[in-house]
């Protein structure tokens, strides 16, 4: 079934106010290029009007010359002038195109950098709600659509306005009666252009939403886990039907857009042809009766094409402008999302040495949809209006430098939420998270990123080589350092068995490796990064016993000498933890060592009996 945003996309609406001034501000860095581009466009318009005037002079000279040598020389000179104008127009066209492409490609690059950079500042909550394909569509289709506003559309508008103005001025000078009659048909161009421009913009906006939906469906279904899910539980016919429905709707929109545009252009061409007949009829009559020159009729006829052609282009330009503005609006919509986590201008760096971690009276609720997302990126008609409830209620925890804290508790108790606050994936609503006594909100992003390393359940890897994935955490690492990290992560035998060694591509999300190999590879990445604080978020939750044993050996290396927070249901390191904190319903209900908590017979003892008894936690 298609999402609500697609079903409701046909409702007409205008482009947001302030979009055009914002476009100019965005293009300000190209001001000099833009001025040169517009001057070349003006020159093209002037040459376009000058050519018919010179052609009329040729006809007048032929008619009046009487075969004299002077007349012949004049005709030859005028013909040479027409040739010179043609050469100027050709060279100007090439130069204009160069400036146009330089501007256009530059704007595409700037817009993409701006959107990509801004999206990276968004909190994790943004990515958990946003459909990836819809976001990618903003960076591709909408950015290219926005670029055309500055190059193709702007050049067309400026050139045609100047050409239209000059043509009207010259025609009024030559034969005002004929010109006024030709201009009587002008309202036929202007009135429908306004209505059709809005209609086509709405159709283009709906098509953009549908294209984003197709992008997202392909992104999800063509990934390794998505394709596996479809094969296990999906219905290929239903998948194809949903995809086909979107493509057919895009087809229908394309047909309607093409026909609306074509009917409009056909009507304009018909009116232009009727005006041409008027010129030849009335102008010819005035020439025969001696009221105007024969060359004037030729000039008027040629200028008419410079009159109605710009009118047609300007009428279509409204459609192009509306389409481009829709693209800019969709790009700005993403740029206007305010990142919830920002770095202070006077942010500090974390001092060298061991790092302690403390959560002081921490209160936290996950961000609401309206704070981090857009309906169009979620492909829903309206964002979820519900307000998220507080999930952490006054949590106090402290982990001394080089010490190990284990978090245990029921699923959904808040353990992973606590872990996500330490590397500042989210900001607390109350209280503070501190590294060595400094609030993480007062530290630079680079300091927090360099100090805290995390190993999650899924062990995410990019579609890159083993070396490329490991250097992501340590760009300057040598091959020898990477090999050492792999050996410490118990992956030496795997490396020896791979034909391409460090240049082996792991596949999307590392799916060419086993679960245990992926997880140990993320541990090797952690070892290369050398963080002073390590967080293990159920790092072996989805592994079999053999893989878990190999990962646990690798974790011994990862935790050695570091401050650690471990979330696990079955890790043997829990027993050796310096402190265990039991989390339930967003609160710390118990804390102590393994033996102390068992002795109290509280919640930890219950969890131990029900979950840990068979996991070799007690010797």
Specify the overall morphology: elongated
Structural class: alpha/beta
Round the mean pLDDT to the nearest integer and report it: 79
With strands numbered from the N-terminus, the spatial order across the biggest sheet is 6-7-8-3-9-10
**Corresponding CATH superfamily of the largest domain:** ABC transporter type 1, transmembrane domain
Helix content: 55-70%
Distance between the termini: 55 Å
Instruction: Tell me the major beta sheet.
Output: 6 strands, mixed
| Uncertain regions spanning at least 5 consecutive residues | 1-13, 614-619
Strand residue content: 5-15%
Please identify the oligomeric state.
Answer: single chain
- Compute the number of structural domains: 2
Q: What is the highest CATH level, the class of the largest domain?
A: Mainly Alpha
Q: Report the total helices.
A: 22
The tally of beta strands, per DSSP, is: 10
- Please give the radius of gyration in angstroms: 35 Å
CATH topology of the largest domain: ABC transporter transmembrane region fold
CATH architecture descriptor text of the largest domain:
Up-down Bundle
Describe the structure.
- This protein has helices at residues 4-7, 19-26, 31-65, 69-120, 124-129, 132-174, 176-183, 186-221, 224-233, 236-288, 294-335, 369-372, 375-378, 415-421, 445-451, 466-471, 479-488, 492-497, 515-529, 545-559, 594-600, 603-612, and strands at 357-365, 390-399, 404-409, 430-435, 438-439, 452-455, 533-537, 563-567, 579-584, 587-592.
- The protein folds into two domains: 17-335, ABC transporter type 1, transmembrane domain (ABC transporter transmembrane region fold, Up-down Bundle); 357-460 and 531-612, P-loop containing nucleotide triphosphate hydrolases (Rossmann fold).
- The protein has a six-stranded mixed beta sheet with strand order 6-7-8-3-9-10, sandwiched between helices. Strands 2-1-4-5 form a four-stranded antiparallel beta sheet, covered by helices on one side.
- Mean pLDDT is 79; it is low at 1-13 and 614-619.
- By secondary structure, the protein is an alpha/beta fold.
């Amino acid at each position: 079934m298609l999402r609500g945003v697609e079903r409701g996309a046909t409702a007409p609406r205008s482009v947001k106010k302030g979009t055009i001034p914002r476009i100019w501000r965005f293009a300000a860095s190209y001001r000099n290029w833009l001025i040169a581009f517009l001057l070349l466009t003006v020159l093209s318009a002037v040459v376009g009007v000058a050519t018919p005037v010179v052609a009329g002079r040729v006809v007048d000279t032929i008619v009046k010359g009487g075969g004299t040598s002077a007349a012949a020389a004049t005709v030859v000179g005028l013909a040479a002038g027409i040739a010179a104008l043609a050469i100027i127009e050709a060279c100007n066209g090439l130069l204009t195109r160069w400036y146009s492409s330089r501007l256009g490609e530059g704007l595409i690059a700037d817009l993409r950098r701006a959107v990509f950079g801004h999206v990276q500042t968004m909190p994790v909550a943004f990515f958990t709600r946003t459909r990836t394909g819809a976001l990618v569509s903003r960076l591709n289709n909408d950015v290219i659509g926005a670029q055309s506003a500055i190059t193709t559309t702007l050049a067309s508008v400026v050139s045609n306005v100047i050409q239209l103005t000059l043509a009207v001025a010259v025609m009024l000078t030559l034969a005002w009666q004929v010109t006024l009659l030709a201009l009587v048909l002008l309202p036929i161009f202007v009135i429908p252009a306004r209505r059709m421009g809005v209609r086509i913009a709405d159709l283009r906006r709906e098509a953009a939403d549908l294209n984003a939906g197709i992008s997202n469906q392909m992104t999800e279904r063509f990934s390794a886990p998505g394709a596996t899910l479809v094969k296990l539980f999906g219905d290929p016919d239903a998948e194809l039907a949903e995809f086909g429905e979107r493509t057919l709707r895009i087809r229908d929109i394309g047909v309607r857009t093409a026909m609306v545009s074509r009917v409009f252009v056909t009507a304009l061409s018909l009116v232009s042809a009727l005006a041409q007949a008027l010129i030849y009829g009335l102008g010819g009559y005035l020439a025969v009766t001696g009221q105007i020159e024969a060359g004037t009729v030729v000039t008027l006829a040629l200028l008419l094409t410079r009159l109605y052609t710009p009118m047609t282009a300007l009428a279509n330009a409204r459609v192009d402008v509306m389409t481009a503005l829709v693209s800019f609006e969709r790009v700005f919509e993403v740029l206007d999302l305010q990142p919830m986590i920002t770095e202070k201008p006077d942010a500090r760096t974390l001092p060298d040495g061991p790092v302690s971690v403390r959560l002081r009276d921490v209160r936290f609720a996950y961000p609401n949809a309206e704070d981090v997302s857009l309906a169009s990126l979620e492909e829903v008609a309206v964002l979820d209006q519900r307000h998220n409830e507080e999930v952490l209620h006054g949590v106090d925890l402290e982990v001394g430098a080089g010490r190990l804290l284990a978090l245990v508790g029921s699923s959904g108790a808040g353990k992973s939420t606590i872990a996500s606050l330490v590397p500042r994936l989210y900001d607390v609503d109350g209280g503070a998270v501190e590294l060595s006594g400094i609030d993480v909100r007062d530290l630079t992003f680079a300091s927090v990123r360099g100090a805290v390393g995390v190993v999650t359940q899924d062990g995410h890897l990019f579609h890159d080589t083993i070396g490329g994935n490991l250097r992501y955490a340590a760009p300057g690492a040598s091959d020898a350092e990477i090999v050492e990290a792999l050996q410490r992560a118990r992956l030496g035998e795997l490396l020896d068995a791979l034909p391409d060694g460090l240049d082996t591509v792991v596949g999307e999300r590392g799916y060419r490796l086993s679960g245990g190999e992926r997880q140990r590879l993320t541990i090797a990445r952690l070892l290369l990064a050398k963080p002073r604080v390590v967080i293990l978020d159920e790092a072996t939750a989805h592994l079999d016993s053999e893989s878990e044993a190999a990962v646990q050996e690798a974790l011994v290396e990862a935790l050695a000498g570091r401050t650690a927070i471990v979330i696990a249901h079955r890790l043997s390191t829990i027993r050796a933890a310096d402190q265990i904190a039991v989390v339930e319903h967003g609160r710390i209900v118990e804390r102590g060592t393994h033996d102390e908590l068992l002795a109290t017979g509280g919640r930890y003892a219950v969890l131990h009996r029900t979950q840990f008894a068979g996991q070799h936690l007690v010797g």
